[in-house]
Design brief:
The protein is mostly helical. It has helices at about 1-25, 25-40, 40-65, 70-125, 130-180, 185-200, 200-245, 250-260, 265-280, 280-310, 315-370. It is built from eleven helices and no strands. Helix 3 crosses helix 5 (about 130-180) and helix 7 (about 200-245) runs antiparallel to helix 10 (about 280-310). The longest helix has about 55 residues, at about 70-125.
Length: about 375
């Protein structure tokens, strides 16, 4: 009787909490958004530490093989990661910035020429009378242009303030990242001590195993993403070079970087590639589109599902579903991180099902005597 009352009390409490959440859903979302904004530097630091922990472990393993002093390995590994990131960013800026500047200049010339052609056509066309042209011009100058300038100037101070705030948040996030990476063992021991106090041993072992699965899955996911980015960059570079398109190196590098964004990245790279080649010739922009379409077919249906999906043990259909759901919920970040999340859930559920199937099959084997081991 007491157990029934207790179950009913739990159900009523859950129903009351659910009702409160539904009635105050907007306020709860606002509070969560404000909390995330306030904790953004720490959250960013944790994400960066989680991401960069993989290459840091690789560097530490190399230092261990060459008998580097143990006390200095972590510091050297963190410093190496920061230096490598700065070198990569500097190299990309050094290679890409001049090309972008040249492309923007050429694009500006092309746009000016196009505007001149359009203006000349309008001037000599009988479709629009001069009075109508003047009326449209006056309307644009008095409404759209003026209002746009006022809006821009009005929000300029706010934009500058937001920029400095974001830069400060990123700097603080990097600071948190360094401290988390430097003391990750201490944080792990502290977490384990807390779990030992509040949870039984079997639950702790399960949580530890789940953590190991997450780290292993993400490790393989990151490595496969790097391989996939290299393959896409090489394919775009080879395709551009084969048909004689300009900016093969630049577009190849950008395509490789953007390929970290599942399925959507190639379309973004395609737009950039077409924009660059359009400054040379509209025909070349169309050829660029054809090259990207071919690469996208290969990348979307062969490279990404096979390289990334197989590396994390996720079937192709679930890889596509993870990217789709993550993108709809959290945009580009969701598309990237939902694949390893789905892979972890898939692996844990698969192991849970296999374990229960074995437990259910064991008594039948004992009674029946002859049963195929596969069943």
């Amino acid at each position: 009787m007491d157990k029934i009352r207790k179950d009913w009390a739990v159900m009523i409490a859950l129903a009351a909490v659910s009702l409160l959440v539904v009635l105050n859903f907007s306020a709860i979302l606002t509070w969560i958004s404000e909390f995330i904004g306030m904790m953004f530097p720490l959250i960013l630091g944790m994400i960066l530490a989680f991401v960069l922990n993989v290459p840091m472990k690789r560097i530490e393993q190399v230092l261990e093989k060459i008998n580097f002093p143990q006390k200095l390995r972590r510091s050297v590994a963190i410093l190496s990661i920061i230096v490598i990131l700065l070198l990569i960013i500097s190299l990309l800026i050094w290679i890409i910035a001049p090309m972008i500047a040249k492309t923007v200049s050429q694009l500006g010339d092309s746009v000016n020429h196009l505007l001149f052609v359009v203006a000349d056509f309008v001037q000599h066309s009988k479709l629009m009378q001069s009075s109508e042209v003047s009326q449209i011009t006056d309307s644009l100058s008095q409404s759209n242009i003026v209002s746009s300038v006022i809006t821009f100037l009005g929000g300029f101070t706010t934009n500058i303030s937001g920029l400095f705030s974001n830069v400060f948040s990123v700097i603080m996030g990097i600071f948190f990242m360094i401290n988390i990476l430097a003391s990750k063992e201490m944080l792990a021991r502290l977490t384990l001590r807390i779990l030992n106090v509040v949870l039984p041993k079997d639950k702790i072992e399960h949580i530890t195993y789940v953590g190991e699965v997450i780290m292993d899955t993400y490790d393989r996911f990151l490595m496969s993403q790097i391989i996939e980015a290299g393959i896409v960059g090489v394919m775009i570079f080879a395709g551009y070079s084969l048909v004689g398109l300009p900016y093969a190196g630049l577009v190849g590098v950008l395509s490789g970087v953007l390929s970290f964004i599942p399925y959507i990245g190639p379309f973004m790279a395609c737009g950039i590639g077409m924009l660059f080649t359009f400054t040379e010739s509209p025909i070349q922009a169309l050829i660029s589109l054809v090259v990207f379409m071919i690469v996208q077919i290969v990348e979307g249906n062969v490279v990404y599902p096979k390289v990334v999906g197989s590396s994390v043990g996720l079937p192709t259909v679930l890889t596509l579903a993870a990217a789709l759901i993550g993108g709809n919920l959290f945009g580009l970040v969701g598309m990237i991180f939902f694949i390893p999340i789905f892979a972890v859930i898939y692996r844990l559920v698969k192991e849970w099902v296999e374990k229960h199937e074995q437990e259910q099959a064991a008594p039948v084997v004992a009674v029946g005597g002859i049963i195929d081991e596969e069943n």
